Amino acid sequence: MAEVVESTGVKKESGYFYYLGKDGNVWRTKMASGGKPGGGAEKVADANISRESGYLYYIDGNGDVSRSQMAWKK
User: Fold this and answer.
1) Which of 12, 16, 34, 39 stands the most exposed, by the fewest C-beta atoms within 10 Å?
2) Residue 1: which pLDDT band, with cuts at 50, 70 and 90?
3) Would 32 be classed as within a structural domain?
């Protein structure tokens, strides 16, 4: 089950990949298409998230930073 970590309200645009960077902020980059390279990354929101081990962090459909606990195979 996912939980919202930070409400950023980022408005996602088509053709861009949104992700949580190593610095804990929300970034986006233009997706490659038809053999053409994508674009450079640009910061779109300050979230200042400190990652916790065992969780997958992502930008959800509402543009907020969410996380889900990873399933570990034993």
Assistant:
1) 34
2) confident
3) yes
